[in-house]
Design brief:
- The protein is an alpha/beta fold.
- The chain is globular.
- The chain has two domains: 47 residues; 163 residues, Rossmann fold.
- It is built from eight helices and seven strands; from the N terminus they run ααβαβαββαβαααββ.
- The longest helix is centred in the first third of the chain and has 24 residues.
- Strands 3-2-1-4-5-7-6 form a seven-stranded mixed sheet, sandwiched between helices.
Length: 243
C-alpha cells in the first residue's frame, strides 16, 4: 500500500506498550494469587504509566511536521542543520520556511526508540511534504559533528540532548553545535522539562532524567551561547545565538 501521508513515528511505542502490559499482568496475578493490596498498588502503577503514555502521545503527536513559523523567523536562504532528525519532523518543518536554503538532517537511526527510523523513511516524508529538494539526510552523531567550523546559520535539536548521558555529554554536544554555527548563528533547542507537565507525561524512570529549565540555561551559557529567548508550550523552547 502506497504511503499517502507523512508519518513521523511514535517514539518507543513497542517498549512502553510492552512494559505497561507486563506490569498490568503482574499486578493482576499478584491480586489473584498473592495479595490484593499489593496487586492494586502494582496495577495502579501500571495504569499511571498508561495515562502518562496516552498524554505523551497527545503532547508529542507525530502526525505533522513541526511548525516553526511561530517561534523563529527565517530569511529563507539559511543553511540549516537538524541534529537527531529521526523521521524528519523538524527537518521538514524548517524546510517549508526556506526558499533557497537547505536543511541537513543527521541521526544515528535508532529503530528501538523510533520504529522504522531510516534515511529512506525520512526522505519519503520530505517528498510527501514537497520539500525533497531542500533536504538531505545522512548518518551523524551530535557528539562528533563531521562539519567544518562556522558552517550553518541555524542548528535545531528536538528531544535529543536529553537522551545523552550526563551533563558532560550534553555540554560536549552543545560545544560541537557552537563550533559548526556561523557567528551570530542561531541554535534552537526543544526539550521536555522536569516540571509538573513532565511528571504526568513521562514514566517515573524517564522523568528523573529530565533537566529543569535553569539547568538547560546554565549548560547553554557554559557552552558560550548568548541572547537567550525562552518559551514553554508542551516543552521548553530555547533560542540562543553564537556571538
Amino acid at each position: 500500500m502506497t504511503q499517502k501521508k507523512p508519518h513521523y513515528g511514535y517514539y518507543a511505542l513497542t517498549i512502553f506498550v510492552g512494559l505497561i502490559a507486563i506490569i498490568l499482568i503482574i499486578g493482576a496475578a499478584i491480586y489473584v494469587f498473592v495479595s490484593q493490596v499489593a496487586g492494586i498498588l502494582i496495577g495502579g502503577f501500571g495504569l499511571y504509566l498508561l495515562v502518562a503514555y496516552v498524554i505523551s502521545l497527545y503532547s508529542f503527536r507525530q502526525s505533522e511536521s513541526f511548525d516553526f513559523s511561530h517561534v523563529i523567523q527565517l530569511r529563507g536562504d539559511e543553511k540549516v542543520l537538524d541534529v537527531g532528525c529521526g523521521l524528519g519532523k523538524v527537518t521538514v518543518g524548517v524546510a517549508k520556511l526556506l526558499t533557497d536554503g537547505t536543511v541537513t538532517g543527521i541521526d544515528i537511526w535508532n529503530t528501538v526508540e523510533i520504529p522504522g527510523n531510516s534515511p529512506e523513511a525520512a526522505y519519503r516524508n520530505a517528498e510527501l511534504e514537497g520539500v525533497q529538494d531542500k533536504v538531505e539526510f545522512k548518518s551523524g552523531n551530535v557528539l562528533t559533528l563531521e562539519f567544518s567550523d562556522n558552517s550553518f546559520d541555524l542548528v535545531t535539536s528536538s528531544s535529543v540532548l536529553n537522551n545523552l548521558s550526563g551533563d558532560d555529554q550534553k555540554l560536549q554536544a552543545m560545544n560541537e553545535i557552537y563550533r559548526v554555527l556561523k557567528p551570530v548563528g542561531t541554535f534552537f533547542l526543544l526539550e521536555p522539562l522536569r516540571n509538573l507537565r513532565g511528571f504526568f507525561t513521562f514514566s517515573p524512570f524517564a522523568f528523573w532524567q529530565l533537566l529543569t529549565k535553569d539547568k538547560w540555561v546554565a549548560l547553554l551559557e557554559k557552552a558560550g551561547f548568548v541572547n537567550l529567548k525562552y518559551r514553554y508550550m508542551d516543552a521548553g523552547y530555547f533560542i540562543v545565538e553564537k556571538p
